[in-house]
Amino acid sequence: MGQFEWAKESEKQWGERADGWNSRSEEMWESGSRKDIAPFFIKHLNDGSKVCDLGCGDGYGSLKLASSGFEVTGIDVAEVMVQKARTVNKGQSATFIKGDIASLPFQDEDFDGILAINSLEWTEKPLLVLEEIKRVLKPGGLACVGILGPTSGPRQNSFPRLYGEEVICNTIMPWEFEALALQMDFNKVDELGVYKKAAEQLSKGALPIELKQALSFMWVFLLRK
């Protein structure tokens, strides 16, 4: 049995999922679980900001930013996703490259903003990604990071690890990520909870933030360097 290589296996699996993901991504960003993320991030950015989309997938999140006037660079581990992102963003001010988001091919303090939605959980060492985010952000720059919550279906991809299987999905929780970010001297500027329909019907106003995060499908953090 060959040695497990996270990056190669990740590219293989995301390449296999690319068509299915692409068929759903527009709906997710326009009316589904990601519909509020771009407006949430954009309201905090200055016009014309230079933004990097980490784990850009087929580029629909990048499109939301590019079509709002931002200069966007997307990076993804899977070449097939990069090609789809270029097609989705044809005619926009957006560039896409294949690469590892834990080792970014950019200079220090290169970006005004970072978008990373459900991408840290799909890396071998999320801490390295957060360190790279901090490195490439300008002083005062903003990182919009979405972490899958406990009620998220995609978390089932990490379960086989309990059987000793090699998997590409990590298990970082929103509160773990928040603690990690604060320890690295990021400041939390804003946050956004995304819930399944059943949880949306619950009154959450009096709940502490930890319980709100525990009910979430995804928790989106806005962090300032």
Automatic annotation (TrEMBL):
<dbReference type="InterPro" id="IPR013216">
    <property type="entry name" value="Methyltransf_11"/>
</dbReference>
<protein>
    <submittedName>
        <fullName>Ubiquinone/menaquinone biosynthesis C-methylase UbiE</fullName>
    </submittedName>
</protein>
<keyword id="KW-0830">Ubiquinone</keyword>
<dbReference type="InterPro" id="IPR029063">
    <property type="entry name" value="SAM-dependent_MTases_sf"/>
</dbReference>
<feature type="region of interest" description="Disordered">
    <location>
        <begin position="1"/>
        <end position="20"/>
    </location>
</feature>
<dbReference type="Pfam" id="PF08241">
    <property type="entry name" value="Methyltransf_11"/>
</dbReference>
<feature type="domain" description="Methyltransferase type 11">
    <location>
        <begin position="53"/>
        <end position="144"/>
    </location>
</feature>
